[in-house]
């Protein structure tokens, strides 16, 4: 390279540095980088109640607690009411609740926000719901999806990081319908596309991130229903930045639609039952620079209680590989490629084919 060429390259490099400095100076800050971990159903009941009483509230999450601290924010689906009061809703097969003293175990999860829009929040009526929301308030855990009326249930949880503002909306599509909130009736927010469109429009701007949590689908299935795919794309088209699904108790595939992730089901995070149909589960991490999602990390989580003994942990080695290969195969059917590196899966949202949208 000649001296003239070296001078030209040096000047070009200086120009790039100057432009970057000018941009950062004009905005006042670099885009904040942060990670947001999403985990599935949190159901520390049945056998876990016994373990809590015997071993204390540190027991359930002792093997995974430190791993969760690696991420800036954590979201989960709070599947059980926290109450010792109320009348049980008798017209359903399963009703759950956890006493406030035992529910302190969830503090080990460092939860920043939970969805309460599910088919168990009202298992012990309005009193049980109110106790649950009070418990979350007392422990500084934000929530979305339930309240004293429909307007309250539709209100999002709000989280900020640097200049990034995130809203989490939550809805349920599972029965019983008696649990759904109304204008003057306490309960949960229903999956109603018109309502969801309206809510997204209320909070989505070029500077905000809107997550939509959906409790939906069919239990013990690995493949989302056709109506879910249709609804999910409607919600993304309405302006949502991501969809987080749960309820099937099994993990399902990930779709990237118009550059936006749809997590159809995370599976369980913890549950208190042993049965032969249990599966390992996933957590999903969104890594952001400002309001731009750069890549997704898929974490395999032990979910077979015959092995984990009611203590979830991050899978490694062969077990991790088998879980991730399953999720990769389901995701490929939805048009999404997951790269498996070590014990984790990755989706690079900065690739041009992802940014354009593989499933437009």
Structure description:
The chain has 360 residues and is α/β, with parallel strands linked by helices. It contains 11 helices and 17 strands. The strands form 3 sheets. Strands 1, 2, 3, 4, 13, 14, 15, 16 and 17 form a 9-stranded mixed beta sheet that branches. The protein has a 6-stranded mixed beta sheet with strand order 6-7-9-10-12-11. It has a two-stranded antiparallel sheet with strand order 5-8.
CA radius of gyration is 22 Å
Beta-strand content bin: 25-35%
Let me know the average pLDDT: 92
Helix run count: 11
Task: Give the low-confidence spans.
Answer: 2-27
Global outline: globular
Biggest beta sheet summary = 9 strands, mixed
SS-based class:
alpha/beta
In whole angstroms, how far apart are the ends? 46 Å
| Count of DSSP strands | 17
